[in-house]
Amino acid sequence: MITNTINNFKLDGKIAVITGGAGFLGEKHAEAILEGGGIPVLVDINESAAKKKAEMLSKKYDSEVHWFITDITKKESIINLNDSIISEVGYVDILINNAANDPKVDAGKNPGWSRFENFPEENWDLDFAVGLKGAFFCCQVIGQEMAKRKQGVILNISSDLGIIAPDQSIYSINGLSQDLQPVKPVTYSVVKHGLIGLTKYLATYWARDGVRVNSLCPGGIYNKQPESFTEKVERLIPMGRMANADEYKSAVIFMVSDASTYMTGSTIIVDGGRTCW
């Protein structure tokens, strides 16, 4: 029997929940699902942004797009979300844990606030609540439903900084003393490393229940950052450039489709070679 490998990449009718769906990367993940023939469900805490993004995508692709407002840091909210999706859309086939805080190093706080020695406990708690506890709750509720049905795919969106530590020199500002230099906050890297750990744990936990769990580590995406910053980043990347926003969509389709049926517990790094150095 001859099989058509390309058909394995199709997502026809698959329902995909995307947390942080109203954000920059969330939109691109939704586009990947739509281009594969699936049905994206945008989950976000920002009602106006989620509604606007869903309407835009639906019009752009002339396809079905759903949106729900949920605080993923609260388990009861995820339980209600799952019930609503099953009732209004159908059982979830794909879960993309994309939501995360990405605090800017120059977020207008006191000078040096982002440095490890000064990093506020409340920021630690919030960043972990959104980026890691939120993924934990979504897997616990939606993933458990998948395991009961003996089918499903979970994709955790990590980062190149889930593999390596940030190079803090790219954030440095001339003229500032060392103790005031901005840095990438500790929580971002720790949360992204944690998602890879969660991926491996659940991949083995549900391996015989028909649920695959993998993680994607994207590198930095060009999004109109200052040239002075992008030049520093590009020097760290063997390919000499940051990613275009659409360059991760093919990896997402591969990882959530039947093209990767024998892959679980794996991490795919798409970073222009940065983590090789």
UniProtKB/TrEMBL annotation:
Gene3D superfamilies: NAD(P)-binding Rossmann-like Domain (3.40.50.720). PANTHER family: 3-OXOACYL-[ACYL-CARRIER-PROTEIN] REDUCTASE, SHORT-CHAIN DEHYDROGENASES/REDUCTASES FAMILY MEMBER. This is Short-chain dehydrogenase/reductase SDR. GO terms for molecular function: oxidoreductase activity, acting on the CH-OH group of donors, NAD or NADP as acceptor. The keyword Oxidoreductase applies. Transmembrane segments: none annotated. Belongs to the short-chain dehydrogenases/reductases (SDR) family. Keywords: Oxidoreductase. SUPFAM superfamilies: NAD(P)-binding Rossmann-fold domains (SSF51735).
